[in-house]
Design a protein that fits this description.
Low-confidence stretches: none
Number of strands: 7
Strand content: 15-25%
Order of helices and strands: HHEHHEEHEEHEE
Oligomer: single chain
Number of domains: 2
CATH superfamily of the largest domain: Histidine kinase-like ATPase, C-terminal domain
Strand order of the largest sheet: 2-4-5-7-6
Mean pLDDT: 81
């Protein structure tokens, strides 16, 4: 019987360690500069929003600002993490909620239920962040009109055997998709991101409340 020889692990040389370290620093610097550039764009949008002619126009600028901020948040997290990827989604989603504390947390009186157990690659994390931002914006605009009701937002994100399952639910009354204006971007953007970018599926339950069920492979 011929015995297979075990392959010896090649030690990491000091020069290779140095190259890996420099590569890591360069990537972190790239994320840092990207985040700063996005923050500059956000500042320009805010300046333009201040000059808006009416409330509707100002709201469009605010929506755009929040979308870009969702992207910037991922680069902020990667820049401060020990590794480059994947992104800890619990940390990311909590940071995203905190960045919108004035409008989100105030509406639900801090009643946000999180069940997050997933790590996602940077590219996909950005798409998830933009989706959640749209879902939050829709909840704020349409779900919490009944001020006497105790409202909530629930976000579940689980990773099982290479598949991510995202469930988002609010305590609103639901809505009829036929009533959505043709120029409304939020719902169309969510579906586009899931189907075209994440190559996943999305189910919308909106009879008695609003619930999104998104599934995609890592």
């Amino acid at each position: 019987m011929i015995q297979k020889q075990k392959k010896e692990a090649h030690p990491v040389t000091p020069s290779l360690q140095e190259a890996l370290y420099e590569n890591k620093i360069l990537f972190k610097e790239l994320h840092h500069r990207t985040k700063n550039n996005l923050q500059l764009i956000i500042s320009l949008i805010r300046m333009q929003a201040d000059k808006a002619q009416n409330t509707l126009e100002a709201e469009h600028f605010i929506d755009l600002e929040n979308r870009i901020h969702a992207i910037a948040q991922t680069h902020e997290i990667v820049n401060h993490a020990d590794g480059l990827e994947p992104v800890d989604m619990r940390h990311y989603i909590q940071a995203l909620l905190e960045s919108r504390s004035e409008d989100v947390l105030l509406k639900v009186q801090n009643n946000i239920i999180l069940n997050i157990e997933a790590t996602v690659q940077l590219k996909d994390a950005i798409y998830v962040g933009i989706m959640l931002n749209e879902m939050l914006s829709n909840s704020i605009k349409y779900a919490f009109s009944d001020e006497d009701k105790k409202h909530f937002i629930q976000i579940d994100l689980q990773e099982r055997e290479g598949v991510c399952l995202l469930t988002y639910k609010d305590s609103g009354p639901g809505f009829d998709e036929a009533d959505i204006k043709e120029d409304a971007l939020g719902l169309a953007l969510i579906k586009t991101l899931v189907i075209n970018q994440l190559e996943g599926s999305v189910i919308l339950n909106n009879n008695t409340s609003t619930e999104y069920i998104v599934q995609f492979r890592l």
